[in-house]
Design goal:
single chain, transmembrane helix, 4 strands, DUF2029 domain-containing protein, two-stranded parallel sheet, 17 helices, globular
């Protein structure tokens, strides 16, 4: 790993680091509760979740997809909400949309996930880079707003996706488990398939990845197998797959669902333009968006194929794929940028150049969420966010391209040094014989 990609080795003392961790924990909890109290949030989402919570209580998780209605999230969130409902029920609390009684489950999840970030970042030691990452996760306005104000759960699958990539090089069995849990939390985790595919192909090409792939597959299939059996024994497996993963596809056939991406006036399309509109008489706008995404995924694949297979390159390629997924296809919602944000924050453990972009992305995601929830989306204010997002997407591509070029130069220099050493060694042996 090159010097500029290493964490800053400015080591903090044990006591100083622990003080910072306590302060961050208190601040993270305090700010979330302070935001949750006065802001009702996005009531339609929360009312839907409370209704799902009640449906699970009445019918049970195994049967709720068969007998329930309007459930289009995977089962992990339903399970967590049911456990939360049962826990607060001991105190006579009934969760209600827009109230802390419901948002409590989201705040508790946030705090658990932030605590999980401590072991995930342990390899960086007590460095300022680790402290920066933990602080940006704990105090991030987008993550705070998304749960404590809006009332959504995007941080769950985002952190599982990041954890999976961090564990993949050293603990593939655990990585497989985490990937399964991410998919069972939100279908957007499927974007990591491209990264995983290149990772294992590269390792298999070097005849090093058979054991790693087998362990990953074992972890993944164990969780998915248990889930399939759980729903199948109640006759609800097909209903779960249809409701959680297929029912929402194509539900909003317009170019963007409040996502400040290229379809928000940037290329001349208003948000309500049907994505079935044809361009050049051949492609629909929907197909054009997927083609653009495919180009960026292909670039990320090339980057990963030519880079070292470590946590840094995995996080960078995944961050680009997920941000491209937010920026380029049609029918994208405003919250689909959260995984790219979380992945970009974790990149900062390894590459300081990503710090300012991660902060800017935090602000653009926050602005997008705020405008949607407050109903104050203006064409020109929205376009400011779009321009920032486009610049960040291009910066990610440029950063990965420059890294590829530097890696290529480093390899050529290393090859030249080896060739020179061989020549000198050969001449030395010849002189000895003479």
């Amino acid at each position: 790993m090159r010097k500029q990609e290493e964490p800053r080795r400015e080591i903090l003392s044990d006591r100083t680091f622990m003080i910072w961790m306590v302060l961050l924990g208190v601040a993270a909890a305090g700010i979330r509760f302070a935001v949750a109290f006065p802001h009702g949030g996005f009531m339609s989402d929360q009312q839907l979740f409370v209704d799902w919570m009640e449906q699970v209580r009445q019918r049970g998780l195994a049967s709720v997809y068969i007998e329930g209605s309007s459930i289009n999230y995977p089962p992990i969130f339903l399970l967590l909400m049911d456990l939360y409902r049962a826990a607060v029920g001991w105190f006579g609390i009934v969760p209600a949309a827009g109230e802390l009684s419901f948002k409590g489950v989201l705040i508790v999840l946030d705090l658990i996930l932030l605590a999980a970030a401590l072991p995930l970042t342990r390899s960086a030691g007590r460095t300022r880079s680790r402290l920066f990452v933990l602080a940006l996760l704990a105090l991030n306005p987008a993550l705070i707003f998304g749960s404590a104000s809006w009332g959504q759960v995007d941080m769950l699958h985002s952190m599982l996706m990041a954890a999976m990539l961090l564990m993949l090089p050293s603990l593939p069995l655990l990585a497989g488990v985490l990937f399964a849990l991410a998919l069972l939390s939100k279908f957007q985790a499927v974007t990591l398939l491209a990264v995983l595919g290149i990772y294992f192909l590269r390792r298999l090409a070097n005849r090093q990845g058979i054991r790693s792939l087998a362990l990953f597959a074992a972890g993944f299939t164990s969780i998915m197998g248990v889930t399939a059996v759980f729903f199948a024994q109640a006759g609800g497996l097909q209903a779960m797959v249809k409701g959680a993963y297929l029912s929402a596809v194509g539900m909003y056939p317009q170019v963007t669902m409040n996502a400040m991406n290229i379809w928000y006036y940037f290329i001349g399309t208003s948000p309500t333009t049907p994505d079935t509109t044809r361009v050049f008489g051949v492609l629909t706008l929907r197909s054009a968006g997927f083609l653009l995404l495919a180009l960026f995924v292909a670039f990320a694949a090339v980057y990963l194929w030519k880079s070292r297979l470590n946590a840094s390159s995995l996080l960078k390629s995944a961050a680009l794929v997920n941000f491209a997924f937010f920026m380029l296809p049609t029918e994208i919602h405003e919250r689909y940028s959260v995984p790219a944000l979380v992945l970009s924050i974790f990149v900062c453990l390894y590459d300081r150049k990503w710090r300012i972009p991660a902060i800017l992305l935090s602000l653009s995601v926050t602005a997008n969420l705020w405008m949607v929830q407050a109903g104050t989306i203006g064409i020109y204010t929205g376009l400011v966010v779009v321009y920032v997002n486009v610049a960040l997407l291009l910066w990610m591509v440029g950063s990965l391209y420059r890294e590829l070029r530097q890696n290529h130069r480093d390899r050529r220099t290393a090859d030249d040094e080896r060739d020179l050493t061989s020549v000198v060694h050969g001449k030395a042996q010849t002189s000895g014989i003479d």
